[in-house]
């Protein structure tokens, strides 16, 4: 084989470099360092989009990557490459082959064209099938069918009605009224006459607005269920921003209070079914789903290698794991496989059903058919979604039937008015044998129903009556089934916010359910908070209404045990369980470590964690309530910076009563919550606050755990398992983990591989001896950066510290039939 053209391996073409890379500085001009630096740079500057391709001589033609990337040398020189026909890269578009994952070289015309088509399809989907509004929007006196109403699609989401009106006026257009809700890409405009409509369509259809979005002006047509129905009444509640127009209200055949809809024409044709929206992989076999997820995770993981390579400071050698990535197809570490879910159907122990109008205009309890931002408010029953249990479906149906006769309106997402908003069904299982796994329903022992309402502007007496009636319907609905469905608790959550995502402290009221038929509303202070129970690794977990608990319990068990195996645990291990929820990870691993410190911001979840330690007799766990970014620094300091000798440290904890809490929380009161404020741990117990350390210490001594578990005990092995929400870890948490040199091993569990990649870029990219100061200042471009780009940017200001390296990764499928998957990565240094 001929030699590679030298420029290919040593000086990559410019289009393979990050143009923001500064020139290579040389801090140490000694000959040896120059050699190393140059070598590192040479390695670093190898062609980047082809990490899968080894730099060894060209592979034989049957190699899977043969001709899957364009030869940049050939392109730059206008067609001359010394490899000639044996070059492994494609000489021109015609020679280019698809990659094994069916994608094309991203620099090729073909890939660019496909990207453009995909983008166009997305827009068309939003314009056509995407807009399924079944909520009434009050707009001034025009019937949608008059032809004088138009729907504008692709408006900037941040625009309000005022912005839309200003925009129309700036274009010199005449109109009667305009309505636009922030957070949606659609707006509605009413015109005085056909001439105004004609001019507006001519001027605006296809015009560029905002960030290169192409404006589409569509007709507003009534939904099928509205045809033949005249608008009847105005909405009782004015819309939020004070506009009160009346363009589209219409009654429907089923409902007394008559919701209507606004629909751009064509939308009826292309709507997705609830099954396609909620479980888009359900049409594949389970084995194909697993392959699909693994491939897609591999693609995402490769971004870690590429971005860490780019972020590696000039003058610093690329770490081994980046150099070795070429041997494993560009991955940062081996992706060992995907663990399947023990249960593939009906596995969800928690379902949040929206309340809204179906495409046929019927009040429905189920799932939204798309994204509200894109104008979808239609809701469809969950019956066809394979991830939902029969019990959850049954309760959704009972609630839906109740709504037919309720005095109160369902929630209207466009006007933010109404009463009934959401039903959450949470299920708890008894510990199940393998045979019961096959028949999951038989193992469901407890059910908690949480109904979200908005009580604002409704009468208290009527509310009480309605909720009591609902409780009776649920009670009857559960007993008519054979065997009867479990019904453990009914909780009413009051929430006035615009989206249904209520904060954890949204007010709750508990409804006492008497199976004989009597139901009563109880105030939160009067009764114990209702909870359900589930089992993981033979431990019993008590779960309060708002606490996070993995939705697929049996698969979560596998996730936790894998994480424990990878964390390298032992009696001398101090385990930080970051974002611990109800304590599931720390508690299931507590018997394998010296001590667990759990951190969680949701106070109810922390109380649950403490209670869970207590009911399982676990004494080596401490749970701290606070945002990880606020507390992790002081906790790490507390555990990892104190003097080595036991006696010195005991003295210290006695003297600093309010500063250090050496408490085994598992034996403290179930109602007590530990909070950290201003880096001090303050006790909150039954409402009172302040330094209760001595009391707790007395308790501890009584229970005989103080000697064995103290914060000053020195643990040889310090490990963190982090399990953050979708957004990933806060930058402060990343910095603490990275700069705490005693933390040698980190297991990252992620439900969102994008944020894992972003966080791992910061954790694994080598830092400079001297941090680049002020890289984040005055940089307003961050808003448009990808999460990986932002992470690269932040990595530049990471204090000098030993980076972690990705060691291995494994996926665990907690969400069959959906594209989602948990990913576990072991990082070490
Ligand atoms: C994905 S859940 C994991 C919970 C737990 N590890 C489990 O498996 O059940 C993420 C948890 O992080 C908590 N959380 C979110 N942001 C947080 C923050 N800034 N600090 C601490 N906890 C946070 C949430 O309340 C939630 O309980």
TrEMBL record:
<feature type="region of interest" description="Disordered">
    <location>
        <begin position="224"/>
        <end position="264"/>
    </location>
</feature>
<feature type="domain" description="RRM">
    <location>
        <begin position="154"/>
        <end position="222"/>
    </location>
</feature>
<dbReference type="GO" id="GO:0003723">
    <property type="term" value="F:RNA binding"/>
</dbReference>
<feature type="region of interest" description="Disordered">
    <location>
        <begin position="1"/>
        <end position="65"/>
    </location>
</feature>
<dbReference type="InterPro" id="IPR000504">
    <property type="entry name" value="RRM_dom"/>
</dbReference>
<keyword id="KW-0862">Zinc</keyword>
<feature type="active site">
    <location>
        <position position="751"/>
    </location>
</feature>
<dbReference type="Pfam" id="PF13847">
    <property type="entry name" value="Methyltransf_31"/>
</dbReference>
<feature type="compositionally biased region" description="Basic and acidic residues">
    <location>
        <begin position="644"/>
        <end position="659"/>
    </location>
</feature>
<keyword id="KW-0808">Transferase</keyword>
<dbReference type="InterPro" id="IPR036855">
    <property type="entry name" value="Znf_CCCH_sf"/>
</dbReference>
<keyword id="KW-0949">S-adenosyl-L-methionine</keyword>
<dbReference type="InterPro" id="IPR045850">
    <property type="entry name" value="TRM2_met"/>
</dbReference>
<protein>
    <submittedName>
        <fullName>Zinc finger CCCH domain-containing protein 24</fullName>
    </submittedName>
</protein>
<keyword id="KW-0863">Zinc-finger</keyword>
<dbReference type="Pfam" id="PF00076">
    <property type="entry name" value="RRM_1"/>
</dbReference>
<dbReference type="GO" id="GO:0032259">
    <property type="term" value="P:methylation"/>
</dbReference>
<dbReference type="GO" id="GO:0006396">
    <property type="term" value="P:RNA processing"/>
</dbReference>
<dbReference type="InterPro" id="IPR035979">
    <property type="entry name" value="RBD_domain_sf"/>
</dbReference>
<dbReference type="Pfam" id="PF05958">
    <property type="entry name" value="tRNA_U5-meth_tr"/>
</dbReference>
<dbReference type="InterPro" id="IPR030390">
    <property type="entry name" value="MeTrfase_TrmA_AS"/>
</dbReference>
<keyword id="KW-0694">RNA-binding</keyword>
<dbReference type="InterPro" id="IPR029063">
    <property type="entry name" value="SAM-dependent_MTases_sf"/>
</dbReference>
<feature type="compositionally biased region" description="Basic and acidic residues">
    <location>
        <begin position="39"/>
        <end position="48"/>
    </location>
</feature>
<keyword id="KW-0479">Metal-binding</keyword>
<keyword id="KW-0489">Methyltransferase</keyword>
<comment type="similarity">
    <text>Belongs to the class I-like SAM-binding methyltransferase superfamily. RNA M5U methyltransferase family.</text>
</comment>
<feature type="domain" description="C3H1-type">
    <location>
        <begin position="65"/>
        <end position="94"/>
    </location>
</feature>
<feature type="binding site">
    <location>
        <position position="723"/>
    </location>
    <ligand>
        <name>S-adenosyl-L-methionine</name>
    </ligand>
</feature>
<feature type="binding site">
    <location>
        <position position="600"/>
    </location>
    <ligand>
        <name>S-adenosyl-L-methionine</name>
    </ligand>
</feature>
<feature type="region of interest" description="Disordered">
    <location>
        <begin position="643"/>
        <end position="664"/>
    </location>
</feature>
<dbReference type="Pfam" id="PF00642">
    <property type="entry name" value="zf-CCCH"/>
</dbReference>
<dbReference type="InterPro" id="IPR000571">
    <property type="entry name" value="Znf_CCCH"/>
</dbReference>
<feature type="binding site">
    <location>
        <position position="550"/>
    </location>
    <ligand>
        <name>S-adenosyl-L-methionine</name>
    </ligand>
</feature>
<dbReference type="GO" id="GO:0008270">
    <property type="term" value="F:zinc ion binding"/>
</dbReference>
<dbReference type="InterPro" id="IPR010280">
    <property type="entry name" value="U5_MeTrfase_fam"/>
</dbReference>
<feature type="zinc finger region" description="C3H1-type">
    <location>
        <begin position="65"/>
        <end position="94"/>
    </location>
</feature>
<dbReference type="InterPro" id="IPR025714">
    <property type="entry name" value="Methyltranfer_dom"/>
</dbReference>
<dbReference type="GO" id="GO:0008173">
    <property type="term" value="F:RNA methyltransferase activity"/>
</dbReference>
<feature type="compositionally biased region" description="Basic and acidic residues">
    <location>
        <begin position="224"/>
        <end position="246"/>
    </location>
</feature>
<feature type="compositionally biased region" description="Polar residues">
    <location>
        <begin position="1"/>
        <end position="10"/>
    </location>
</feature>
<dbReference type="InterPro" id="IPR012677">
    <property type="entry name" value="Nucleotide-bd_a/b_plait_sf"/>
</dbReference>
């Amino acid at each position: 084989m001929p030699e590679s053209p030298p420029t290919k391996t040593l000086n990559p073409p410019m289009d393979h470099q990050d143009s923001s890379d500064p020139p290579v500085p040389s801090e140490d001009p000694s000959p040896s360092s120059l050699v190393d630096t140059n070598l590192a740079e040479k390695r670093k500057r190898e062609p980047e989009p082809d990490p899968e391709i080894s730099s060894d001589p060209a592979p034989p033609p049957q190699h899977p990557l043969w001709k899957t990337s364009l030869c940049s040398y050939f392109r730059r020189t206008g067609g001359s490459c010394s490899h000639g026909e044996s070059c492994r890269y494609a000489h021109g578009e015609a020679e280019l082959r698809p990659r094994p994952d069916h994608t094309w070289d991203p620099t090729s015309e073909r890939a660019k064209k496909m990207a453009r088509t995909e983008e166009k399809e997305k827009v068309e989907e939003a314009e056509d099938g995407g807009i399924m509004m079944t909520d009434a929007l009050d707009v001034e006196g025009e019937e949608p069918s008059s032809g004088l109403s138009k729907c504008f699609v692709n408006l900037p989401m941040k625009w309000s009605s005022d912005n839309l009106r200003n925009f129309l006026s700036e274009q010199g257009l005449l109109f009667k009224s305009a309505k636009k809700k922030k957070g949606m890409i659609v707006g509605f405009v009413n015109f005085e006459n056909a001439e105004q409509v004609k001019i507006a369509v001519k001027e605006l259809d296809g015009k560029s607005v905002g960030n290169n979005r192409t404006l589409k002006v569509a007709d507003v047509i009534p939904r099928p269920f509205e045809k033949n129905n005249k608008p009847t009444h105005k909405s009782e509640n004015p819309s939020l921003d004070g506009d009160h127009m009346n363009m589209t209200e219409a009654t429907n055949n089923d409902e007394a209070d008559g919701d209507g809809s606004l629909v751009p024409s064509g939308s009826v044709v292309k709507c997705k079914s609830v099954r396609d929206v909620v479980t888009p992989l359900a049409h594949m076999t389970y084995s194909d789903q697993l392959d699909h997820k693994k491939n897609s995770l591999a693609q995402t993981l490769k971004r870690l290698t590429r971005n860490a390579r780019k972020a590696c400071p000039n003058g610093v050698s690329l770490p081994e794991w980046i150099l070795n990535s070429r041997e494993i197809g560009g991955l940062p570490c081996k992706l060992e496989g995907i663990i399947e879910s023990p249960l593939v159907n009906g596995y969800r122990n928690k379902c949040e059903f929206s309340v809204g109008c179906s495409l046929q205009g019927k009040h429905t309890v189920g799932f939204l058919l798309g994204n509200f931002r894109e104008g979808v408010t239609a809701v469809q029953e969950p019956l066809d979604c394979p991830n939902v249990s029969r019990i959850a479906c049954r309760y959704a149906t009972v609630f839906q039937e109740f709504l037919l006769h309720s005095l109160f309106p369902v929630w209207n997402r466009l006007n933010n008015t109404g009463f009934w908003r959401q039903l959450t069904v949470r299920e708890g299982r008894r510990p199940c044998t393998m045979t019961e796994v096959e028949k999951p329903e038989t193992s469901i022992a407890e059910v908690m129903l949480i109904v979200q309402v908005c009580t604002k502007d409704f009468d208290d007496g009527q509310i009480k009556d309605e909720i009591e009636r609902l409780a009776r319907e649920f009670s009857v609905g559960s007993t008519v089934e054979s065997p009867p469905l479990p019904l453990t608790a009914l909780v009413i959550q009051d929430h006035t916010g615009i989206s249904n995502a209520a904060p954890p402290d949204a007010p709750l009221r508990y409804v006492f359910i008497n199976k004989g038929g009597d139901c009563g509303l109880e105030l939160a202070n009067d009764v114990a908070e209702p909870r359900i129970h589930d089992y993981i690794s033979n431990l019993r977990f008590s779960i309060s209404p708002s606490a996070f608990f993995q939705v697929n319990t049996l698969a979560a068990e596998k996730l936790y045990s894998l994480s424990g195996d990878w964390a390298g645990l032992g009696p001398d291990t101090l385990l930080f369980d970051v974002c611990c929820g109800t304590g599931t990870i720390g508690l299931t691993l507590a018997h394998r470590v010296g001590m667990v410190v759990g951190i969680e911001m949701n106070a109810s979840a922390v109380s649950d964690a403490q209670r869970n330690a207590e009911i399982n007799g676990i004494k080596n766990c401490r749970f701290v309530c606070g945002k990880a970014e606020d507390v992790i620094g002081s906790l790490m300091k507390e555990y990892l910076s104190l003097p080595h000798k036991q006696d010195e440290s005991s003295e210290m904890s006695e003297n600093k009563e309010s500063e250090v809490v050496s408490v085994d929380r598992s034996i403290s009161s179930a109602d007590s919550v530990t909070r950290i404020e201003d880096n001090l741990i303050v006790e909150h117990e039954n409402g009172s606050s302040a330094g209760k350390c001595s009391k707790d210490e007395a308790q501890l001594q009584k229970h005989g755990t103080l000697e064995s578990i103290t914060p000053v005990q020195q643990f040889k092995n310090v490990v963190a398992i982090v399990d953050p929400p979708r957004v990933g870890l806060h930058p402060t948490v990343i910095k603490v983990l990275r700069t705490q040199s005693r933390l040698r091993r980190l297991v990252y569990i992620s439900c969102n591989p994008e944020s894992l990649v972003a966080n791992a870029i910061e954790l694994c990219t080598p830092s400079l001896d001297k941090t680049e100061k002020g890289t984040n200042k005055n940089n307003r471009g961050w808003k448009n950066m990808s999460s990986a780009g932002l992470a690269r940017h932040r990595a530049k200001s990471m204090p000098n510290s030993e980076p972690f390296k990705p060691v291995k990764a494994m996926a665990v499928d907690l969400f069959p039939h959906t594209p989602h998957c948990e990913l576990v990565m072991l990082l070490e240094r």
